[in-house]
């Protein structure tokens, strides 16, 4: 008999909602504690890629088709230089046919909406968890307002600076690792296939510690991400100029449509995010007794593989299944980490290495990087990327 009759999930992000949906559908009485107080504060964020592995995991919850309808299928992943030279172009459609699910570009809020609707009334907004206590019979989440929620298992899905993680480690934890660059994310209104064609994710690599990513989300909107290393971002005059102006200056000589994308973006739509991860560490487990971490609370990674959301979804599906299969919560928690650790550890390391190449500043090193990409990314790079991505473990 499964050991879990009720569960409490801390955090209504992608991983927490995925776990809550899976548990609820398995007959587990589930409560999601979310510190944000209104739904509109949850349904925010820019755009992102959701690869085949994430859609396969969502299929386990019968949500893949609904999510696919909310996004646009990505047919090509094109790598280019800041001198408008093609470095590689991956044809994604054959892989979509092979695995039976597409790769998508979509708004983060679109995915959150699907997950929130599926989770239903198990989400409690304005409920901030400040700690927990556990014993042989269960675990109690303590709330900021003095309330408590008792359950058989507590799932910490509360992000990079997780309260659950801090309480579980009792403050004995290394801080997140700063990657040395900032992602300036935005969505702009830019109609027209001539400006940005639908179905291609563009990944531009530049000199001087600059990168730029963009893709069309729908007929009217384009998502973009300007990634600036500290070596260049530290020179931005943010006192005299706004975000759009400093980025327009940094990317003024980049090939079309990059300058136009930035110029058409509203100032307030640009959100700078400093990028962090946590190095893989077998000594720092994801669980303790009846408490377990998932997603960014357990294993945050940089954005370079577009797998943060995908791995959180895989976590939610895997943990749901293991809690249903085991008659002991701690055994399920141990099995979850054993199943998932190597996969996410490899992705964390790969994503960190890719991000480090984007910080290169010298023309010589950047020219060598571009030459390497032209020689290997369409062949070995693509194969290795898919091998890692589709080694699904849930």
Gist of the model:
It comes from Actinomadura alba. The protein has helices at 14-25, 39-42, 52-60, 64-70, 93-99, 108-119, 163-169, 230-233, 243-250, 258-263, 308-325, 329-358, 363-389; strands at residues 6-10, 29-34, 47-50, 72-73, 76-81, 86-91, 104-107, 123-125, 129-134, 139-143, 148-151, 153-156, 177-189, 200-205, 210-216, 221-229, 271-277, 287-288, 291-293.
Helix content: 25-40%
The biggest beta sheet reads:
7 strands, mixed
Portion in strands:
25-35%
Shape estimate: globular
Q: Helix- and strand-based class?
A: alpha/beta
The CATH architecture of the domain at 6-72 and 108-175 and 277-359: 3-Layer(bba) Sandwich
Rg estimate, integer Å: 21 Å
Mean pLDDT: 95
CATH class of the domain at 6-72 and 108-175 and 277-359: Alpha Beta
The unreliable regions are none
Layout of helices and strands, plus pairs?
Blueprint: E1 6-10, H1 14-25, E2 29-34, H2 39-42, E3 47-50, H3 52-60, H4 64-70, E4 72-73, E5 76-81, E6 86-91, H5 93-99, E7 104-107, H6 108-119, E8 123-125, E9 129-134, E10 139-143, E11 148-151, E12 153-156, H7 163-169, E13 177-189, E14 200-205, E15 210-216, E16 221-229, H8 230-233, H9 243-250, H10 258-263, E17 271-277, E18 287-288, E19 291-293, H11 308-325, H12 329-358, H13 363-389
Helix pairs in contact: 1-6, 1-11, 3-4, 3-11, 11-12, 12-13
């Amino acid at each position: 008999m499964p050991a879990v009759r009720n569960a409490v999930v801390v955090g209504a992000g992608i991983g927490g909602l995925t776990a809550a949906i899976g548990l609820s559908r398995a007959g587990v009485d589930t409560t999601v504690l979310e510190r944000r107080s209104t739904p509109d504060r949850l349904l925010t964020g820019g755009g992102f890629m959701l690869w085949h592995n994430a859609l396969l995991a969502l299929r386990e919850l019968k949500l893949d088709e609904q999510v696919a309808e909310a996004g646009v299928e990505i047919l090509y992943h094109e790598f280019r230089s800041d001198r408008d030279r093609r470095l590689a172009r991956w044809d994604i459609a054959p892989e979509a046919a092979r695995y039976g699910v597409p790769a998508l570009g979509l708004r983060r809020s679109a995915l959150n909406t699907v997950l929130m609707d599926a989770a239903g009334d198990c989400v409690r907004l304005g409920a901030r968890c400040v700690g927990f206590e556990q014993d042989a019979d269960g675990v109690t989440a303590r709330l900021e307002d003095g309330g408590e929620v008792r359950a058989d298992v507590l799932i910490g899905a509360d992000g990079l600076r997780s309260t659950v993680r801090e309480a579980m480690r009792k403050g004995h934890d290394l801080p997140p690792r700063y990657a040395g660059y900032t992602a300036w994310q935005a969505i702009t209104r830019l109609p027209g296939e001539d400006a940005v064609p639908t179905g291609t994710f563009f990944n531009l690599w530049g000199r001087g510690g600059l990168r730029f990513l963009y893709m069309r989300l729908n007929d009217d909107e384009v998502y973009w991400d300007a990634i600036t290393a500290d070596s260049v971002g530290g020179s931005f005059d943010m006192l005299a100029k706004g975000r759009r102006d400093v980025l327009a200056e940094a990317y003024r000589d980049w090939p079309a449509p990059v300058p136009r994308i930035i110029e058409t973006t509203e100032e307030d739509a640009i959100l700078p995010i400093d990028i962090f991860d946590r190095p893989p560490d077998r000594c720092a487990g994801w669980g303790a007794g009846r408490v377990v971490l998932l997603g960014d609370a357990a294993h945050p990674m940089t954005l370079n593989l577009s797998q943060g959301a995908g791995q959180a979804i895989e976590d939610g599906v895997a943990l749901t299944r293991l809690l249903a299969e085991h008659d002991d919560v701690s055994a399920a928690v141990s099995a979850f980490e054993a199943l998932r650790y190597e996969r996410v550890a490899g992705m964390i390391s790969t994503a960190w290495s890719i991000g480090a190449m984007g910080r290169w500043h010298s023309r010589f090193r950047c020219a060598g990087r571009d030459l390497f990409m032209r020689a290997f990314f369409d062949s070995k790079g693509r194969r290795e990327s898919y091998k890692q991505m589709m080694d699904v473990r849930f």
